Amino acid sequence: MSDAIWTAGEVPHVLFVGDESGCRDELTAALGAGWAIQPANDGIHAMDLLKHPNRPASIVVVLDLSMPVLEGFGFEKARRADSELSHIPVVLVTSHAADERVKKFGARAYVKRPIVVGDLAAVVRELGEG
Amino acid sequence: MGKPTGFLEFHRELPANRTPSERVSDWEEIHVHVPTDTLKRQGARCMDCGTPYCHTGKLIGGMASGCPINNLIPDWNDLIFRGQWKEAAVRLHQTNNFPEFTGRVCPAPCEGSCTLGLNDDPVTIKSIECSIADHAFEEGWIVPDTPGTRTGKRVAVVGSGPAGLAAASQLNHAGHTVTVFERADRVGGLLMYGIPNMKLPKSMVERRVRLMANAGIRFVTGVEVGRDITAKSLLSDWDAVVLCCGAAQARDLAIEGRNLSGIHLAMEFLHANTKSLLDSSLADGAYISASGKSVVVIGGGDTGTDCVGTALRHRARNVTQLEILPKPPASRAPDNPWPQWPKVYKLDYGQEEAAALQGADPRAYSIQTKRFVGDESGQVREVHTIDIEWKKSPDGRMHIVELPGTERVFPAELVLLALGFVGPEKKGLVHELGLKLDERGNVVTDGEKMTSVAGVFAAGDMVRGQSLVVWAIHEGRKAARGVDRYLMYGQSYLP
Questions:
Q1: Does B402 score more than 70 pLDDT?
Q2: Predicted local distance difference test score (pLDDT) of residue B190
Q3: Fewer C-beta within 10 Å: chain B N or C terminus?
Q4: What's the domain range around A52?
Q5: What helix, strand, coil percent values describe chain B, rounded to 5?
Q6: Domain range for residue B85?
Q7: Assembly ipTM
């Protein structure tokens, strides 16, 4: 039973999955008002949030592949298998863009490490509007 | 297979038991340790068969053929031959959470399906398993299995028998936060209070439970779900629930005189004895004593044997065991071929002790109890029986035919009913949750071990009816995988 639930109401959300809190804070600042950031510690926490009845309508997932409990590939396998969640856009944060598994991953967008927060914010905005 | 000719060179050697006359004077384990050299030779007898039936665990004719938890037996037989004990212990724990239990109490269907058993004595698999587990504990290799990360999911396991403990162990390994509820005052279910100390020392159950607690599993004793906690609150307070409540409803004998005093269900007798033994070395007198009494045990299974062994340790005047089935043959019948479980005559520890003290195997076969007769104070004094024959009906079913003129009377001041179990208790938990039951009264589960109520899983005797400890471990592991997949959105790394 995860503790965190969506609290910001019906504004576009970034579901930030991973433990890079520094990057998360910078992204919050870069996106500015009109966006809310919902952190998730790991893939299971993220799935619990996506399955929560209070889930907002507009979400962009920013996903780290390396996480404890349920890592990024596992999270995506579960999310894509769920017809209610499979439409949600995902930005993959990776330092292994050339990795075969990442290539096959088929995320809507990639952001390479080291993260340039301005680039990430632009990608999030674009997907959020799309 | 470390030694290709091992099976030709070495004969089967089992660990020596302490003599019956010595062991009935205490409650300690009946076996003695096997020397390492002997084990090495016994491991060398394994032929590492192309198809190792010993670890297949198939049900043939309703009985397990090979190991139900698919222990990797040829692997560790070989490792023991090579002296690689630690590797053997690791390999053993990959499939079996509690080899120190099964190495003692399992009837060893693995040995019944060992290929060597076709025309020779099978490999001493059970004895090797037990020795690997004991050796690993002695060396300090068995440490708490604490998960690296926690999922944040909370699971309640109801019942702490082998199924509940196996499920809890696996779920904790997967990172879930597990609480085990047990209604008795000690953890272990039938491992604690069903099986007597001489067969499975309670210190070993406590040792394993301590390891699990140190790995992060919480144990709550003296709490009955369905009475002290509502079943419905389980559903709201936990992410998943695993019910491992056993097949605790004992089969009774509704015949004349059943209400006389001195007639008890086997589990009342065994539970009270072990509790009093652990609480006070029997000094508190809070047990059903067989001392100086003529004891009749009705039922020829393992529980009946445990009653015989326990009554003899009380210094019963004499013990008789009544078995309704015919005496099994000395070797396999034509309709019971290898690799089926061999339905053959066995002299288990209790009967061996009775034979040593009383001069003969205490069992009478093909015998049915007709009524109990008591004295004016309402105390049982006699068990009246009749011999029977098993006949096949035109529809293929076996039925009983009483043989006139074979009526017998056994003097009895204590009668113990060890007639098996008819299924899970229905009142309380099962009823409150409205769980779907099968035609035998067992809880119905799907392939993931989930019951008819979402998020509620069930395993062990509660699902399959009374069975072996090793099947309970199998069930608990399977339920843990089902729960893990349920909580982890369809994914599980558990075997």
A1: yes
A2: 97
A3: C
A4: 25-129
A5: 35, 20, 45
A6: 6-138
A7: 0.76
